[in-house]
Amino acid sequence: MQKDPKKIDIQELKKTYKIEESLHKLDEDLIGLSSVKKRIQEITAILFMDKVRQDFGLSKYYPGLHMSFTGSPGTGKSTVASRMAELLQNLGYLTRGHLIVASRDDLVAQFVGQTAPKTKDVLEKSMGGVLLIDEAYYLYKPNNEKDYGGEAIEMLLQVMENKRSDLVLIFAGYSEPMKTFYRSNPGLSSRVAHHIDFPDYSREELLTIATKLFQERQYKLSFYAEEVFIKYLDLRCQLPLFANARSIKNIVNRACFRLASRVMGETGVFTYKSLTNITPYDLILSTLFLKGLETFPMTKIGYKNDMRILFQILEYRKIGYTKKTLRYFTEFPLYIWKNYSK
């Protein structure tokens, strides 16, 4: 048996290509999305293996890198595209590793002769990196004879084939319209090697994202605020145009704005707590709550014999008690929601 003349330390090679570092960043940047992360790890593995095979003198196989990201807004498509660009640069498949995000308006013009220069400009800026085309299905309008989206698509097809060694295209958008888009463009579909679906975030994942965003800004959800925030999520998710993590970011920003406004109006002395604690009041001021909110008093009852704290709901209409009964208790508002759909 012939002895293997060459051995390569896998761990050292991973360090060289910064594989673990890039995947760790992806895991830190995104909450959940385990199926997406698994696909990225699989793609990384085949690319890494291709590099190792080249080091052993085996034939070079250039795998298709163009991708399709489907899913609702705010599910991390741009973040994954950015991390993918970084991975591909570290592995030597891209020279610059930057991300350019474009839409139909960046590529397609309204008049004859203007689409080609616009598309060419975007492609030149993207060379050496990743070009993410958001809502890509808007490029194709078959019922409009005066539409120039087809011209942009033809240019993209040429670049996908001829410049694939230094440009990766990612087409992104809602799942169903993207299926129609690919069916109408067989040449485009055949050049897209990886189709990755981005699921919507669960309630628990959205809460984790919100908590992380608050912490990054050095805020925190105070007593009862988390319960109110969860209900806010339940209501917000029912409305049109909910954009997952993107909407959560907006919610967090507005809560911080309301805290600032409340503190400025209520106190003449700033404390650490007043500057960092998001209270229920900073959430219920949203117009979202006006359609289905009732308030009842809630009391916090502390036990001195141990460190446990019991929260008990006391509704005036059902429980008769005197003010003396509550002299040691601190009252907090409890927010009870009616059926939001009514």
From TrEMBL:
A single MF term (Gene Ontology): ATP hydrolysis activity
Domain AAA+ ATPase: 63-202
Keyword Plastid: yes
Entry keywords, A to Z: ATP-binding, Nucleotide-binding, Plastid
Pfam families with a match to the protein in the record: AAA, AAA_lid_6
Keyword ATP-binding: yes
InterPro entries: AAA+_ATPase (IPR003593), AAA_lid_6 (IPR041627), ATPase_AAA_core (IPR003959), CbxX/CfqX_mono (IPR000470), CbxX/CfxQ (IPR000641), CbxX/CfxQ_RuBisCO_ESX (IPR050773), P-loop_NTPase (IPR027417)
SMART domains for the chain: AAA
Family: Belongs to the CbxX/CfxQ family.
Matches recorded under PANTHER family: AAA-TYPE ATPASE FAMILY PROTEIN / ANKYRIN REPEAT FAMILY PROTEIN, AAA-TYPE ATPASE FAMILY PROTEIN _ ANKYRIN REPEAT FAMILY PROTEIN
Protein name according to UniProt: Rubisco expression protein
Source organism of the structure: Vischeria sp. ACOI 3415
